[in-house]
Design a protein that fits this description.
Layout: E1 2-9, H1 13-22, E2 28-34, E3 54-61, H2 64-79, E4 89-94
Antiparallel strand pairs: 1-3, 1-4, 2-3
Length: 103
């Protein structure tokens, strides 16, 4: 099982969610209005000087192959980004334990 973290400009959040949903991934959380700095674009700190903000998503993906395919699709998304402020960041790691049951 993989955990995937993704951070993107709020302007492309809907597109990123569409990508995730196309893989039929049901376990994810969205954090809206995340303040962000990255090495490519201007900071998005939601201030007068640095307007805008990001969204972050955390996904729990059970199938390794699906996680690999999603990461590739996110790389493809970056290759087709209209400008540097639309480039997202993503990383993944192995989940050692995951609890979600109804008991």
């Amino acid at each position: 099982m993989k955990m995937i973290y993704c951070s993107c400009n709020i302007s492309v959040l809907e597109q990123v969610v569409e990508i995730i949903d196309s893989f039929q991934i049901k376990d994810y959380q969205i954090f809206d209005q995340v303040l962000s700095r990255n090495r490519l674009a201007d900071p998005r700190l939601n201030t007068a000087v640095w307007p805008g903000y990001n969204a972050s998503l955390i996904l729990q993906v059970r199938e390794q192959e699906k996680a690999n395919q999603l990461m590739q699709k996110l790389r493809d998304f970056n290759r087709s980004a209209a400008n540097v402020s639309e480039v997202l960041t993503a990383c993944s790691w192995t989940i050692d334990d995951y609890i979600y049951d109804q008991s």
